[in-house]
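Hey team,

Sharing the Response regulator transcription factor run so nobody has to redo it. Sequence (215 residues) first:
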Amino acid sequence: MIRILVADDHPVVRAGIVGLLETEDGLEVVGEAESGESAAALAAEHSPDVVLMDLRMPGIGGVEATRRVVADDPSVRVLVFTTYEADDQILAAIEAGAGGYLLKAAPAAELIAGIRAVAAGQTVLAPSIAAQLVVRAQRTARRPADPVRGGSPQLTARETEILGLVAQGLSNPEIAARLFIGESTVKTHLLHVFEKLEVGDRTRAVTRAMECGLL
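Structure output:
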């Protein structure tokens, strides 16, 4: 049984989340918090497996609440669940110790899967969040690329993300599951990568991307 604390300052939203979670086998809501302070206090009191944390709440807010929860008990996992996806907020939450970051626009199945994954010790990021982090990392640590037909190949953030997972040895179904997208979408992105890098297979795509400084 995964024990969950739901922290959100909007009563209707909080009630909807709690109602959803209580219909799932293996999930139990052990507390509800309407502020950052109460989230930290209730986490210390109930020792949940996962705190589902909103960011914008009265008082200290979700980032500081996350920091306090993790500092008090590192075994408690925090999954940020919010409408905000600005770079500074994402990084602040992750640096505070959050084990995942999902957006409230996510389907219910994605939220449930995210909770289970975070409880199991995995890191969970909404696809758009992961893409933003990839782009930010590229801007920070960009290296010169070898030319391809007179110019550097340009991959999108999602294409780079998927190719990075290919480099880690993940199959298309595994990538699709990791990013919460369809397998056909993964295949389409890889076809675009092959075309841009002028290669015909996954292995050559990875090696060519490395030669160009894209991975």
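The domain at 143-211 is CATH 1.10.10.10 (Arc Repressor Mutant, subunit A).

Ping me if you want the raw files.
A.
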